[in-house]
Amino acid sequence: MFTVPRLHPSRRNSGPAKPALATVAAAGALLLLATSAPAAQAALPTSAPAQAAVAGKSPAPPSDPKPSGTKPSGTKPGTAAHSLRAPVSDENFYFVMADRFSNADAGNDDGGLGPDPMVSGFDPTRKGFYNGGDLAGLLNKIDYIQGLGTTAIWLTPSFKNKAVQREDNSAGYHGYWITDFTQIDPHLGTNAELKALIDEAHSRGMKVYFDIITNHTADVIGYKEGARTGYISKDKEPYRTATGEPFDDRDFAGSAGFPKLDAGTSFPYTPVLDPAEQNLKVPAWLNDLTLYHNRGDTTFAGENAYYGDFFGLDDLFTEHPTVVAGMTEIYETWIRDFGVDGFRIDTMKHVNDEFWQQFGPEVLAYAREHGKDEFFMFGEVFDTSKSFTSQFTTRNKMQAVLDFPFQDAARNFASRSQDAQQLKDFFAADDWYTDADSNVYQLPTFLGNHDMGRIGSFISTDNPDANDAERVARDQLAHELMYFSRGNPVVYYGDEQGFTGPGGDQDARQTLFASKVPDYLDDDLLGTTATHATDNFNPGHPLYAKISELAALAKEHPTLRNGAHQNRHASDGAGIYAFSRTDATDQREYVVALNNSEEPQTAAVPTYIAKRNYSLIYGDAAGESRTSADGKLTVTVPPLSAVVYQSSGRIPREKTPPAVALQPPASAAATGTSAGDNGRIQVTADVHGSSFYEVTFEARTPGGQWERVGTDDTAPYRVFHDVTALDPGTGVEYRAVVLNNAGRSSVSAARSAVVPDPVLTIQQPAEGSTVEGDVEVVATADPERASHVVHFERSIAGGPWTAIGSNDDSSPAYTVIDGLAALDVADGTEVRYRAKLSGSSVVSNVRTVVVGATPQPDSVTVAGSLNSEMGCPGDWQPECRAAFLAFDPADRLWKLTADLPAGRYEFKAAINGSWTENYGQDGALNGSNIVLDHDGGPVTFRYSHTTHLITAG
Question: Which one of the listed residues 90, 346, 495, 589 is annotated catalytic?
Answer without folding.
Answer: 346
